[in-house]
Amino acid sequence: MKNRSQTRVVLITAFILAVVLPAVGFSSSQQTVRVESSFVQVDAMVTDKNGNRIRGLKSENFQVIEDNKSQKITAVDYCDVHEHGTDDVANPVSISLNEANDADTLRQIGAGHRLIVFFFDRSTMRPEDISRSVNAARAFVKDQMTPADLITIAVYGTQLEVKADLTNNRETIDQTLESLIPGKSSKSKNAKNSMDDSVSVQNGISNVETSLDAAKSLADLLGQIPGRKSVMHFTNGLLQRGIGNDAALNAATGAANRNNVSFFEVDARALVTICGETPCGSAAAVMRQQAELADSRTTLFTLAKDTNGEVFTDLNDFRPIFKTVMEESTGYYLLTYDPTNKKKDGTYRAVEIKLANVAGGRIVFRRGYYAPRN
């Protein structure tokens, strides 16, 4: 890999559809960037009947169909950390979201690393749930993280904050995570902004629209980096309230799919017991609590399903979640095509990918995206 001797690699690629941060409050040193391109990228995982990755496929082995029309594939890249980046490195790698540089080197780095985001939605979480989630992330960094894992940390309270660059520097990541534990006032040496601790939490549930706006902003920001980005979204649920929820959810999933971002939704409440914290005095109370719990998770299931991610609920041990994210982010194809439909009308574009001359092959891919809107 080029420039391995550099301790910091500061890069942004112009190979995205569009990056437009919405009106949700965003705190960082980066400037809003708008980059126009007609190309679409879709990540897809191809396995045999036993679940083993199939490597070495070319453009002629794929057919991309958008809204029932065949599309011309312009590039096929295989991203695999087993081939790149698994050996320890003397100088940690960092990718800044704030500055632009060599896009070709960035593509090489992305092809050989897993790109993972720890996203803590503090607007929905109680202090004990924040601590549980942060400590689980710190344990992953200590015991499971490899040099092939580039991690950044984002927080949403009243505004979206990116706390550090994407990096495989364990010390930087751990210090940043430690600063998020309630009661901790220390800042990591790579922290971008201090966390706003004035968020009011009401029953662990926030306004779903603003949380989804933050998720959309994060997906748009990550679109600057090629390859699949896996966002571990820690929340206490997103209760479905407000007439704008569907539009906000569509906007979040659309941004995620345009920018090859998958949301892995983690219910930070761990194992939830009905009639636990709030005793039930009747059968009606039991049913009400069950309905509220299911409602708080509906948006999480939709956000994960529509972005090719997963949902994790009722787990006291978060370690299997990190393992799943690592496995899902290893060994995938990044297909690039120039869509025949150039309209920027915000409509949904259904995507289908078929395999050609791949005996026994199975493929998992994103089913579509929302086009950008002028």
Topology:
Elements: E1 26-27, E2 40-47, E3 62-66, E4 69-79, E5 94-95, H1 103-111, E6 114-121, H2 127-143, E7 149-156, E8 160-162, E9 166-167, H3 170-178, H4 208-222, E10 229-235, H5 245-258, E11 261-267, H6 283-305, E12 311-312, H7 319-328, E13 332-338, E14 348-355, E15 362-365, E16 368-370
Helix pairs in contact: 2-3, 4-5
Count of discrete alpha- or pi-helical segments spanning 4 or more residues: 7
Number of strands: 16
Give the helix/strand class: alpha/beta
Flag low-confidence runs.
1-36, 186-205
- The CATH fourth-level homologous superfamily of the largest domain: von Willebrand factor, type A domain
Describe the structure.
By secondary structure, the chain is α/β, with parallel strands linked by helices. It folds into 2 domains: 26-35 and 102-328, von Willebrand factor, type A domain (Rossmann fold), CATH 3.40.50; 40-81 and 332-370, no CATH class. Helix content is 26%, strand content 23%. It contains 7 helices and 16 strands. The chain has helices at 103-111, 127-143, 170-178, 208-222, 245-258, 283-305, 319-328; strands at residues 26-27, 40-47, 62-66, 69-79, 94-95, 114-121, 149-156, 160-162, 166-167, 229-235, 261-267, 311-312, 332-338, 348-355, 362-365, 368-370. The strands form 3 sheets. A 7-stranded mixed beta sheet has the order 1-8-7-6-10-11-12, with helices on both faces. A 7-stranded antiparallel beta sheet has the order 15-2-13-4-3-14-16. α2 (127-143) links the parallel β6 (114-121) and β7. α2 runs antiparallel to α3 and α4 runs parallel beside α5 (245-258). The longest helix has 23 residues, at 283-305. The radius of gyration is 20 Å and the shape is globular. It starts with 25 loop residues before the first strand and ends with a strand. Residues 1-36 and 186-205 have low confidence and may be disordered.
